[in-house]
C-alpha cells in the first residue's frame, strides 16, 4: 500500500502519501484549504461545500502528481518509510531530508 | 587423677597445693584497646550539600523543560500536517455522504409515500442549522 500512483498514473491519497506531502500541500494549496474551511464554518452542510471541496481535492492531488513527477525515488522512499512507521515524522528524518532536498518546499 | 598428673608440681603435699591452670593474659598484659568514638568532622558542609542538591535539581528541571520544547515541536509538526490534509479528507467524506444521503431520501420517499402530510427528506430539527443525521446506526462497511 505504499505506492504514490496507481496503475493509471493517478496519485493515490493514502494516509502515508498525504502525510509525506503535507508540508507541500500546506504551502501550495493554502487558498483552497482556507476557502473550504471558511465555507464549512459558515454552514456545516456537506452539500453546500461540495464545489470548494472539489477544488481542494484537485489542488492536493495536483501537488501529489507534481511531486511524483519531479522527484520519484526520494518520494517513494519517504512514503515507504512513513507507511512502515505509521506516519511518525521523527522516525523518517533521513528520507525526509533526501525528499526535501530533491523537491524543496515552497 | 589425670589433673594431678597434668598439673603436677614436684614436691606438693596434697591436691589442694596444685598450681592453678588458667587461661590468662600474656605477661605484661594485653595491648591497649581503643574504645573511644572518633567520628571525623570533615567533608562538605551543610550549605555545600544543599547547594549541590539544588544545583542538580535545577539542572534536571532545565533538561525537562528543553525536552518538553522538543516534544512540543514534534507534536506541532504532526498537527500542522494533519491540518494541511484535513480539507482533502473532509471533501472526500462529504462526497460519499451526499451520495448516501440522496439514496436515503429516495428510500424515505418511497416508504412514506402513502402517509398524508409527511414532508419527505429534510425532517430534522427546527434551529435552521444543519445537523448530521443521528440514526444511531453502526455501519461497519463504511467505517
UniProtKB/TrEMBL annotation, chain A:
Keyword check for NAD: no
Pfam family, any one: CHCH
PROSITE patterns in UniProt: CHCH (PS51808)
GO terms under biological process: mitochondrial electron transport, NADH to ubiquinone
Top-level taxon of the source organism: Eukaryota
GO CC aspect terms: mitochondrion
Residue span(s) of domain CHCH: 71-103
Compartment annotation: Mitochondrion
InterPro entries given in the database record: CHCH, NDUFA8
Keywords: Disulfide bond, Electron transport, Mitochondrion, Repeat, Respiratory chain, Transport
Protein family per UniProt: Belongs to the complex I NDUFA8 subunit family.
Function recorded in the entry: Accessory subunit of the mitochondrial membrane respiratory chain NADH dehydrogenase (Complex I), that is believed not to be involved in catalysis. Complex I functions in the transfer of electrons from NADH to the respiratory chain. The immediate electron acceptor for the enzyme is believed to be ubiquinone.
Stated name of the protein: NADH dehydrogenase [ubiquinone] 1 alpha subcomplex subunit 8-B-like
Organism: Durio zibethinus (Durian)
TrEMBL record, chain B:
InterPro entries referenced in this protein's UniProt entry, alphabetically: GRIM-19
Keyword Transferase: no
Gene Ontology, cellular component aspect: mitochondrial inner membrane; respiratory chain complex I
Native species: Durio zibethinus
Residue ranges of the TM segments: 45-62
Topology term for the membrane: Single-pass membrane protein
Family according to the record: Belongs to the complex I NDUFA13 subunit family.
Location(s), subcellular: Mitochondrion inner membrane
Function: Complex I functions in the transfer of electrons from NADH to the respiratory chain. Accessory subunit of the mitochondrial membrane respiratory chain NADH dehydrogenase (Complex I), that is believed not to be involved in catalysis.
Record-linked Pfam families: GRIM-19
Protein name, entry field: NADH dehydrogenase [ubiquinone] 1 alpha subcomplex subunit 13
UniProt keyword list: Electron transport, Membrane, Mitochondrion, Mitochondrion inner membrane, Respiratory chain, Transmembrane, Transmembrane helix, Transport
Predominant place of localization: mitochondrion
Amino acid at each position: 500500500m505504499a505506492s504514490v500512483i496507481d496503475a493509471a498514473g493517478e496519485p493515490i491519497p493514502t494516509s502515508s502519501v498525504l502525510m509525506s506531502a503535507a508540508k507541500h500541500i500546506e504551502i501550495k494549496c493554502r487558498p483552497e484549504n482556507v476557502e473550504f474551511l471558511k465555507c464549512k464554518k459558515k454552514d456545516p452542510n456537506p452539500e453546500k461545500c461540495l464545489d470548494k471541496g472539489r477544488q481542494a481535492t484537485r489542488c492536493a492531488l495536483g501537488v501529489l502528481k507534481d511531486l511524483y513527477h519531479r522527484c520519484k525515488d526520494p518520494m517513494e522512499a519517504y512514503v515507504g518509510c512513513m507507511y512502515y512507521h505509521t506516519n511518525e515524522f521523527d522516525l523518517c528524518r533521513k528520507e525526509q531530508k533526501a525528499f526535501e532536498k530533491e523537491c524543496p518546499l515552497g | 587423677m589425670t589433673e594431678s598428673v597434668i598439673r603436677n608440681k614436684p614436691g606438693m603435699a596434697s591436691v589442694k597445693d596444685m598450681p592453678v591452670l588458667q587461661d590468662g593474659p600474656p605477661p605484661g598484659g594485653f595491648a591497649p584497646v581503643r574504645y573511644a568514638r572518633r567520628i571525623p568532622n570533615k567533608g562538605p558542609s551543610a550549605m555545600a550539600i544543599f547547594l549541590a542538591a539544588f544545583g542538580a535539581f535545577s539542572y534536571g528541571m532545565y533538561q525537562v523543560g528543553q525536552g518538553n520544547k522538543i516534544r512540543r515541536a514534534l507534536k506541532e509538526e504532526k498537527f500542522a500536517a494533519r491540518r494541511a490534509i484535513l480539507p482533502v479528507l473532509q471533501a472526500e467524506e462529504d462526497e460519499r455522504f451526499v451520495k448516501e444521503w440522496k439514496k436515503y431520501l429516495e428510500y424515505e420517499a418511497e416508504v412514506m409515500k402513502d402517509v398524508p402530510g409527511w414532508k419527505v427528506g429534510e425532517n430534522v430539527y427546527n434551529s435552521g442549522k444543519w445537523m448530521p443525521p443521528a440514526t444511531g446506526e453502526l455501519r461497519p462497511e463504511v467505517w
